[in-house]
Design brief:
5 strands, alpha/beta, 165 residues, five-stranded parallel sheet
Length: 165
């Protein structure tokens, strides 16, 4: 049985995330999906807000159910950069995009130092928007204009919002 791992924040679950999860699930027999905890999101100091962990998990589960992929997937909370990829012995593959490839190489170096097998790296192509830019949560948050439209929502701020004038 081939076991793979993929990780991310998965805020504003978009077509790029869905493409990654779909490709990852089809590349392995069992997929472990690491989702960053709210505490880890705060440490990352992202330039945009992030939906709460429970909201992100609910959206991923719903998507996996719709795609009939939930049975082969296991969602786990991650509190550090490596998540289960840094320590699990039973993993065979890490699934990434070209934007996260360097992280996979760093994880493999860490695994080798700890006498764990390096993981095969499966790079999923990036989905581009109509202007040719990779679809990303950062760009989607920018489009949503968080500061003025989303006051009072249950968003986890991962940075100190600028004061409005």
């Amino acid at each position: 049985m081939k076991i793979g791992v993929v990780g991310g924040t998965f805020s504003l679950l978009h077509s790029g995330h869905k493409h990654l999860l779909r490709k990852a699930a089809h590349a392995v027999d069992k997929l472990i999906i690491g989702v960053t905890s709210d505490q880890f999101v705060k440490k990352l100091k992202k330039e945009h807000p992030v939906e709460p962990f429970t909201v992100r998990i609910e959206k991923i589960v719903k998507f996996l159910q719709e795609e009939h992929l939930l049975k082969k997937c296991m969602l786990v909370k991650i509190d550090d950069f490596m998540g289960p990829a840094g320590s699990r012995k039973d993993l065979d593959m890490i699934i990434v995009t070209d934007e996260t490839l360097l992280g996979a190489l760093e994880i493999n170096a860490y695994r080798v130092k700890r006498k764990l097998n390096p993981l095969a790296i499966f790079v999923v192509d990036t989905i581009l928007d109509e202007r040719g830019f990779p679809i990303s949560s950062t760009r989607l948050w920018t489009i949503r204009d968080f500061s003025s439209k989303n006051k009072g929502t249950s968003i986890v701020p991962s940075y100190k919002p600028k004061e409005e004038k």
